[in-house]
């Protein structure tokens, strides 16, 4: 039976991005190699040595007589495939198997399992917070030719693997026309080949309204390197799905809030968290916090809600809202639980690192920052916290360089991304540059007023400094202090001590002015 190649590729992508395969690099490489070799008509030539060298990265002198690696991994692969297709909720129309005695894979059309019904309370509300569903398509604008078709396939495959690292979205790998509402957004990449280069036209649209959310054009050499493709993946992710800047996430959250019906329970915590990130104030913070706590009361093992709660603890510390009771305990429990429930999630490692920093465990903080970065090197939100964390722990050069590299990427950066560059400029006595950066911080609690206040003061503009200080007191009744009740004051950290000292000078000037 001849089975369409595209159907096989789509099923392969569905497999390798599924929870059973997602974190198994060796198994995924084995399966991908076996599938592509079989599709190319070389399935009967597959043997332990070629698989070990070409799929599993073993040296050319690998000997299957002395090393049973391939046989062991093949057994694991067959077991995983059997479990995957044995799941009654799996409705794949195609099955990929590896019969015993061969490394050639087989493709079989199959009827879906009969529908199984859960109790109503379980079927209506997923137990894990979910975000929008995204479908990725890539196509050549002209008729596919032998010379350019592989780049189309590779780009789509790389995008799927990259985007699947982001747990706030759900990837849809097959385009099911009869179920259009199983997709929330569609990311289309049209590739045009010129004699000089490749042009990639990206368009992100909302499925239900066809609303245009993001569009961008990239240029690549005719034979792009992996670094070229990774750079595009980084830019695409930053502009679409990164939690601090992704246009798809912000569009989805706004759309959910605009509907006349209540936000679905399994979306609500993420929707209000995203709303807070795009409108940072005490009210939006409180709304996100209450929603998240309500979700966790009902589903205490919701790993994504735990990550959101841990992130909110971090913001409560940085913005000095003091709205979370027992901050240290709440933060630590949420961070630990999230990491235990989802250890392959880069964000879980990132929030655990932030918590370790808060508790003064810098060695473990740095280790977890590195793990988060390695787990998802395409997440600019994690990269920002990586640079910020290193800087605050004393490795200022590495930290500021990471932030500068990040901010060179074209994506809609939140204005509070300028906080660390401001701190760096101010601590190095470049007060004019510090003021320029302070002017760009407009929506991050007291940080904008504070940054402008100390910058004006150091530039000798006392009146303007006191004006900003009055605004600081107006919107933030608690004057920044170095006292560390419950480890809450961010100004105990070395990188901020100069700021605190200047604020204390300004406070004295303010008191003198009021007495007059």
Task: Write down the overall geometry.
Answer: elongated
CATH topology of the domain at 133-251: Rossmann fold
Report helical residue fraction. 40-55%
Q: What structural category arises from helix and sheet content?
A: alpha/beta
Q: Termini separation (Å)?
A: 94 Å
Could you give the count of β-strands?
7
Given as residue ranges, the uncertain stretches (5+ residues, pLDDT < 50) are 112-124, 176-181
Please tally the helical runs, counting DSSP H or I stretches of 4 or more residues. Answer: 21
What's the main sheet like? 5 strands, mixed
Rg over C-alpha atoms, rounded to the nearest angstrom: 26 Å
Describe the structure concisely for a colleague.
By secondary structure, the chain is α/β, with parallel strands linked by helices. Helices cover 53% and strands 9% of the residues. Among the domains are: 5-116; 133-251, ABC-type transport auxiliary lipoprotein component (Rossmann fold); 417-516, Serine Threonine Protein Phosphatase 5, Tetratricopeptide repeat, CATH 1.25.40.
What are the key terms here?
516 residues; Rossmann fold; Serine Threonine Protein Phosphatase 5, Tetratricopeptide repeat; five-stranded mixed β-sheet; two-stranded antiparallel ribbon; 21 helices; elongated; TPR-like_helical_dom_sf; TolB amino-terminal domain-containing protein
Describe the structure.
- It comes from Thiothrix caldifontis.
- This is TolB amino-terminal domain-containing protein.
- The structure is a single chain.
- By secondary structure, this protein is an alpha/beta fold.
- 53% of the residues lie in helices and 9% in strands.
- The strands form two sheets. It has a five-stranded mixed β-sheet with strand order 4-3-5-6-7, covered by helices on one side. Strands 1-2 form a two-stranded antiparallel sheet.
- A hairpin with a 3-residue loop joins strand 5 (185-193) and strand 6 (197-206).
- The model is unreliable at 112-124 and 176-181 (pLDDT under 50).
